[in-house]
Every structure is written in structure tokens, then in C-alpha cells.
Amino acid sequence: MSDSSSSFLHVAFPAGVRIEQGEDGPRLWVRDEPLSLGVLPRAIWDAFAWLVDASVSEDALVGHVEKAGGFQAVVFLHVILAKLARRGALRYLVQGPVGTLATLEPLSPRFELSSQPLASVRRLRLSRFAHVRRDGDALVLESPRAHGRVVLGHAAALALLAGLAMPTTPDAAVERLAPHEIPAALTLLELLFRTGFVLAAEFDGNTEEEHRPALALWEFHDLLFHAGSRRRLYGRRVGGTYRLAGTVAPPPAVPPPSEPAIALPRPDLALLARSDPPLVEAMERRRSHREPGARGLTLAHLGELLFRCARVRQVHPGERDEESSRPHPSGGARYPLETYVVVGQCEGLESGLYHYDAAGHRLEQRGGMTPSVRALLADAQVGSHPPRVLLILAARFARTSFKYESIAYALILKEAGVLLQSLSLAATAMGLAACVVGRGNPELFEHAAATEGAAESSVAEFAIHGCTPEEQPLAEPHSWP
Length: 481
What we know:
Elements: E1 9-12, E2 17-22, E3 25-30, E4 33-35, H1 42-53, E5 56-57, H2 58-86, E6 91-96, E7 99-106, E8 124-126, E9 131-135, E10 138-142, E11 148-152, H3 155-162, H4 170-173, H5 182-195, E12 198-200, H6 208-211, H7 213-216, H8 220-230, E13 239-240, E14 261-263, H9 269-275, H10 279-285, H11 299-309, E15 314-317, E16 322-325, E17 337-343, E18 352-357, E19 362-367, H12 371-379, E20 389-396, H13 397-401, E21 404-405, H14 408-430, E22 432-437, H15 442-449, E23 456-467
Antiparallel strand pairs: 1-5, 1-6, 2-3, 3-4, 6-7, 7-11, 8-12, 9-10, 10-11, 13-21, 14-19, 15-16, 17-18, 17-20, 18-19, 20-23, 22-23
């Protein structure tokens, strides 16, 4: 930091960092694991003792180390502090007359403070990927591009961020604050600049995020989702943690059946194994068909496709709750996806909305051809006519989030992709004219199916337009339930 700001910048150890005396001298422990720092001067260990229970200004810390160990110890101190930050074992606090203005928490081994000083740029602008949200009782500033987060401790920090939405000079960014708040706010501004939350604004007012193609082509929500589900950050639990077990009841592997329902024909899998084209042929023949097929669909077609791809083969006890087995893979055998069938034209089936009972291989009637159901078919139209049948893959989100933390939604989308590919290849083998739909309308689906969006909503769609010209007539259903 610059000389003018170092008195407002404090450092401290986060909770979980402690110093213990060992046979070979003091040792630093981080989250119950020893951190190897090599042989450190006594002056640095004495300074570290201050950081365990309180924050210390950068000026005071450097002054103490320099007095006790000289200039060489000060150089060593800065190297060790940077190493601690990369291990998530150091926090930076901006302290002002009003208390803690903000706290920077490093979250990644790639964390570092840029050496470029704030004084080197004329105008600044907040990163377009930066966002403020509530985390527990605190407001935090985060960005998928940053390797740390900032806990906002005072309204002056929010006022500073508001002034950075437009390109502005450092002085103009703090001019709306009270005079006694400005020095600490300038320290925070420099900290935000050196961590990438605030960027240099170029001649046209934009930043590198608008000028560099690799960044300009990312939309905010896409990069946020990518980083949030893929990056490993300190303090973030990832994987099968069952974080709400004992608080929230586990959702069943299969929803309870409902009536009225229509039994679907079951194909003879042994016969299909002999008559189906090889996998490589099905993959090579697969095409996206967006126009009406040569012939229409029948109940037998629909029953076979759903049986091949989406049925429940078995429900069995899992680690904490029920799990199931189906033809396609699912993260942790959670199988959150439910298939809804929107029927426009299908021989043997009335038009309307149905839910596929994957355990009973039945279609449960959810409604007739209402305006909402008709709108679902129209929304999926990409050719000259809407699809004859639209399969909507909806997720019961709790099935996956009950077990998984940080990656639950990513797992759901991966499963949807797997099921869409299964449907595509099975449809090709059956001679159906079908295609994956690139977008959907979750609000329209929720209204038509009467689901609560936060609990169950659509994540993917698959349109069936009929049979392709080369399709051979389908044999009569091999067996009925």
C-alpha cells in the first residue's frame, strides 16, 4: 500500500489460525493443519502473536519487525504475508473513524495484490462481474474473476461502490462521503483496485472486460455459474456434504403416483437388442429434425422412448435416503429429473399435459389443452409447425441439493444433457424425427404444471415431430402392463 493509506490498512489472522510451540520452535496452524513457513526470525513470530487475537495496522507491524529484526526481516515479512494470504490464512481490514469499513478475505492459492498503484490510473470503474449479496448477517462483494471476497462493514463502503458504476476518478469516487470517511475509503479503493474488483477505465469509459474478446464474450451469469460450480475456494464446502440433513426431510427418490393415469406399452428389450442399429450407426445417423415427420406418433412410440431412456428400474436404500437406478447416469444416483409430456398430436392419447410416472411407466394426466399447454408447444416451435409432442425435463432441485453443496445445479444440468443425448440416440434408432430445444420457458411450465418454481421447474426440452421417412413401421406393442 502507499504511505498515505498503510495506516488505515490492518492485517489479522482469521478464525482457525493459531500458533503452537513445538519441539523445533513455534508453528502456525491453519484449519487444524500445520503450515510450513520455514525458519522465521523471532521478530516475525512476535509480530504474528499480535495477529491471533486482533488486527494490527500495516504501519505498526512493519515498524515492530524493523525495530526488532532490521530491514531484512521486513522484506521477509512481506514475503511471508503474501504466502499466508495465498493459503487463506490472512485477512486485510480497512479501519477508519467509523470502525471496520471492509474486510478482504483471500480465498484461493492464486490470490495476490497487484503491484500497480492506484495513482497510476486516471479513471476507474467497477468490474461488470462484481456483485454484492447477503451472506448470513453480512453484505459481501464478490466476483468470479477475483480470488478473494470483501465483507462490507459500513454504509460508506456501499456508497463508494455506487460511485464506481460509471467511469470516475479516485477523488470523484469518494466525494459523496463525509470528510472524515474519505482517507479510509481511498485505502479501500486502492485495495479493490489491486485485487481486480475495480479496473482502469480506458478512453471510451470501458475496461479490459469490454475490450478483450475472452472477457467480452462472457455474460455475467454464465461466468458466475462457471466459477461458482468449478473453482475450489477456501472455506467453501464442495460435494456430498448433506448440509441440511436433520433439518430438512429428504425428498423421496420417486414422487408418489397420482390418478388418473394411462398405462404405457412396454417394449421387449431383448428384441430391441437384436433389431436396433449399432450405437455407432445411431450416432452417425442422428440429426436434428425440426419439421413434421412423414408419419405421426403413436402411444407405442412414446411408451418405447420413455421406457428406453427415463424409466425407474429400481428404488433402493442409499447412504442417507432413497436412491434409484435408471438407464442414464446421475450424480450420486439422485435422479432429480422428472419428464413431463406435452401432447399436441399423438395417436391413442388425448392432447394435453402429462407427467411420466417413471416407476409405474404410466402417464399421469395433469390437464387438457389449456392456453398454457398450447403456449408450451408454440414456444418450442423452431420449424414451420410446433412439435407433435414436447418432452419437458423438470428438476426436483432438492433431490440433488439435499446431498450436494456448491455443485448441485451443475450436476442437474449435466444429467439433463446426458438424458437429452439418450433421447436423441433412442429416437434415431426408432426412426423418430426429433431434436433438442435450445431454450424453454420455466415460468410458463410452472403455470401449466402447477409447480413451485423454487422446488421444481423445467431445465431442458426435447421436441418430437413424428417419424422420419426412412422409419420402418413400428411393430405392435410387445407387452402391456
